[in-house]
From TrEMBL:
GO terms for biological process: mRNA catabolic process; translational termination. It comes from Desulfamplus magnetovallimortis. NCBIfam families: RelE_StbE (TIGR02385). Keywords: Toxin-antitoxin system. The keyword tRNA-binding does not apply. GO terms for molecular function: RNA endonuclease activity. This is Toxin of the YafQ-DinJ toxin-antitoxin system. InterPro entries: RelE/ParE_toxin (IPR007712), RelE/ParE_toxin_dom_sf (IPR035093), Toxin_YafQ-like (IPR004386). It comes from the Bacteria. PANTHER family: MRNA INTERFERASE TOXIN YAFQ.
Amino acid sequence: MNIHYTTQFKKDYKRLKKQNKDLLKLRTVIDKLSSAKLLEPIYRDHPLSGNWKNHRDCHIQPDWILIYRISAEDLYPQSRHL
């Protein structure tokens, strides 16, 4: 599966790196998603609604959410840190 990082993801990634977040956790989730593996229940993966209808989100940590979209062969991660 091809991974296409959004501009927002790239900005969030830089900010997370400066905050010394454990980026291995993020990499692990993205690797699982890109290989079409199911995430463990601890990540609370679920679909979004409204304007985010075609997107999903999962909780890497309680205050760290990964919003993403999967199409046929592509993954579009859009990280969010609250």
